[in-house]
Amino acid sequence: MIPALRALARAAMAARPVPLADVQARAELLTRFGHSYLVPVEVFAALAAELTDRRRPGGPFAVLCINGRRWFRYRSVHYDTPDLRFFHDHRAGGRPGYLIRERRYEDTGERQFEIKLKGRRGETVKHRQPLLPGDEPLGAAPRGFLASVLDRSFGIAAPADLGHCLETAYTRTTFVADGQRITCDAALLCRDLTTDRTVRADGGLVLVETRTTGRPTAADRLLHGHGVRAADFTKYLGGLSALRPELTAAHWRRAVRTAFPAAGGRAVP
């Protein structure tokens, strides 16, 4: 088993399980601030043990559990324009910034059309709409939803020339406390939907993303104590940069090389 997957499973089994309704009630956080960390498995194991310790002041973090499962397979398809407008807007730090994807929950078959907006204070605001069986992700209903969100949020029109760009697949465990949610991803695989090339992330790393309404989470503080600093990394930007090294921004390069060392800046067929 990939070391990061093994660490994820052990951490999830050590925590108290809670259902999805509890996670949504305690920390749904559709509008949130967050940080991303590329965490070696040894540090992740220590982090998870501290967060889920039943003697922890303020109480332990719990783990999302659905139908007995504590880790879940995700697959996302990211959309962009032919000239990668969204990618380059984020690379330049321009506003308004937004990303569009279809998220598939592989264990249940559920699909969501999602729009992630970057707010004026740097916060992320997520809008989503369920996709029914047979629905096209870029069909009339999702396009209407996209147009409505962009007009209401930024006063701009939706691009007409959207297409598939990048597919990401990974396994996730989610830990939660009041007002705090921590997602932990392992076995990330990225596929360029234009060239069909793939790149796999380092199996000894867990991608930890902290989400909160503003203040640093307990996980942020613990990771800083272990000497791990936030990385300028997202699955879409990092994966596409690893697959197409000529696109990599200077301030992403270190994180991309850390996440995808085996690629050596080159994707494989």
Automatic annotation (TrEMBL):
Top-rank taxon, per record: Bacteria
Residue ranges constituting the VTC domain according to the UniProt record: 63-131, 165-243
UniProt name for this protein: VTC domain-containing protein
Source taxonomy: Bacteria, Bacillati, Actinomycetota, Actinomycetes, Kitasatosporales
